[in-house]
Amino acid sequence: MRTNIIVGLIFITSLAVWAADKVQPLNVKVGLWDVTTTATTSGEISIPAGLLEKLTPQQRARVEERTNARTSEASRVTTRKYCLTRERLDQGVTFGEDRRSCTRSVVASTRNKLEMRIECVRQSQDMKSEGTVQVETIDSEKVKGSVRLTVSGDRAAVSTSTFTARWIGPICTLTR
């Protein structure tokens, strides 16, 4: 009798661990989405010394001018299209760029909320960023979310952004 109970508990615990490791897709439609993001950066955006050394004095001045202008902006708003596929949905959609230099790990996943840790490393620029992504469904055609990243390298910066996304239709008509 005790053996059966112990085997049952081990089985149930194994199922719970397996289920916790699996991403539960958000309850949203696949297809083309319109994403509006408001982003703010504080601190200094890192420009690797090795990259700056390769630039002419004129190029370097333009890059530094643009970087300083971005850093001083209160916030910037961008709107873009995003193609949400079943595969992206099953992996844990972030409604952002899927960069190859980034690793993501799911912290919590339900049909209505997703929280992920993200870490990006750019060896060529000696930069690292890490933070959290949170996505919440309003309904199957609307979501909202936030991203907070801390960038480290030659200089440090913190980037925070919020976004809203609305479903446009089932067919992705993006061109690259």
Q: SSE order, as H and E?
A: HEHHEHEEEEE
Question: How would you sum up the global shape?
Answer: elongated
Strand order of the largest sheet: 2-1-7-6-5-4-3
- The proportion of strand residues reads 35-45%
Rg result: 21 Å
Cα distance spanning the termini: 63 Å
The main pleated sheet reads as: 7 strands, antiparallel
List the domain count as a whole number: 1
Low-confidence parts: 1-20
What is the helix content?
25-40%
**SS content category:** alpha+beta
Number of helices: 4
Total number of strands:
7
Mean pLDDT: 79
Structure, briefly:
This protein has helices at 2-21, 49-53, 57-72, 86-91, and strands spanning 31-43, 76-84, 102-109, 113-122, 127-139, 142-152, 157-169. By secondary structure, the chain is an alpha+beta fold.
Task: Characterise this structure.
- It is a single chain.
- 27% of the residues lie in helices and 44% in strands.
- The protein is of the alpha+beta class and 176 residues long.
- The protein has one domain (25-169).
- Strands 2-1-7-6-5-4-3 form a 7-stranded antiparallel beta sheet.
